[in-house]
Amino acid sequence: MKYFSVFITFLTLNLNAQEIDSTKIENSILDSLYISEVQDKKAKDKVLHAEPLYIDLIRDLGARKGEKEWNIGTGLTDKMRFDEYTALVEYEWAPIDRVGLEVELPFTFYYHRNNSNSSGTPRSKLNSLKLAGQYSFYVSEKNKTSLALGYIQEIELVEFVKYGKENLIEGYVYNPFFIGAKRWGNNLHTLVYTGPVFHQSRFSQTISSSFQLNSNFHYMIPGTRNFIGIECNQIFQSGTVNSVLRPQMRVSIADNLIVGIVTGIPVNNREDERISSFLRLIYEPGHKIGKHTFK
To answer: Which residues, other chains included, contact 151 with Cβ-Cβ below 8 Å and sequence gap of 6+?
Structure first.
């Protein structure tokens, strides 16, 4: 009886081990299938990269002609004396291979708290008309690396309360940028997005400048399109650095519909800003990943 019990225990452990190994193999196969679908040998080279959710890319690195995507985002930031609500609508597409274009309308709404002085609360506005382009000049499936250059042009607008009373244009923002991304194996992804930002007010010929550095690390869950990761947004201006850590996760709820969830944790400047949250809904019309289904 003793030996029979030992045999049953051994058999159970062996079956569990086989089940775990089977799951690992299945996930590995799914990872390979998804990567092979993106890196289709019959099309222009493209490497699968995890795209950050807060400061997102204009289009996938190595974009292929015909790709398109709608994004709707909403966020909330505790600004101590008032709450800042953000919203955006953007459309991005690839008119030709490796070139991505984007049009975005970013909004900001402010809610004044009753127990604070409202004199310092900004006014709600459509921040700007944002136009952008991106070109992936280096895409290597062998090295799992992509490099891109891009440019963002923003036409800043006045607050809603000034419509019809003043010129709608408040200023201009010029933002050239560089992106470098690499995938390590099948699941680990790193990406750097960086460049100067120049701001020119309509009321002055003076141009102020800052420099942004966005560093990203993501882990794509085996057997899925989902990932978890962290995005670090840094702005260097006038000898100071403003840094925000943004832990995030992406969840695919359909073949062409993805939800991104982001939390913002300020590293410094905590006297003016607390924890924030951001939600991004990503819809890719007509998108289908070959004959395979990925969750």
So the answer is: 132, 133, 174, 175, 176, 177
168 Rama class: left (phi>0) / alpha (psi -120 to 50) / beta: alpha
Q: What is the mean pLDDT of each run of 10 residues along the chain (295 residues)?
A: 48 50 52 58 82 96 94 91 92 97 97 67 93 97 96 96 90 97 96 97 86 98 91 94 96 92 88 86 76 40
CB 59 within 8 A of CB 69: yes
C-alpha separations of 41 from 27, 46, 110 in Å = 22, 9, 49
Domains assigned to the chain: 2-283 (2.40.160.40)
Backbone φ and ψ for 202, nearest 5 degrees, come out as -65, -25
Instruction: Tell me the CA distances in angstroms from 48 to 11, 71, 111, 252, one per residue in order.
Output: 40, 19, 40, 16
Query: What secondary structure letter does DSSP report for 41?
Result: T
Are the C-beta atoms of residues 284 and 91 closer than 8 Å to each other?
no
